[in-house]
Amino acid sequence: MNDAIRLAEKYDLNVPRYTSYPTAPHFSPAVDAATYRGWLAGIDPTSPLSLYFHIPFCDSMCWFCGCYTKVVQRYEPVRAYLDVLATEIDLVSAALPGRFTARHLHWGGGSPTLLRPDDWLKLIGHLRRRFHIAADAELAVELDPRDTTEAYVRALAEAGVTRVSIGVQDFDPEVQSAINRHQPFEVVERVCAWLRTHGIADINLDLMYGLPHQTVERVVAMVETAHRLAPARLALFGYAHVPWMKSHQRLIDETALPAGPERLAQFAGAAGRLDALGYRAVGLDHFARPDDALARAADAGRLRRNFQGYTSDDAPVLLGLGASAIGSLPEGYVQNVAPLRDYAGRVTAGRLAVARGIALGPEDRLRGHVIERLMCTLDVDVAEACGTHGFAADALDQAWDRLGPLQADGLVTVDGNRIAVTEAGRPFVRLVAAAFDAYLASGQARHSRAV
Question: Which of 38, 62, 284, 308 is most buried, with most CB under 10 Å away?
Answer without folding.
Answer: 284
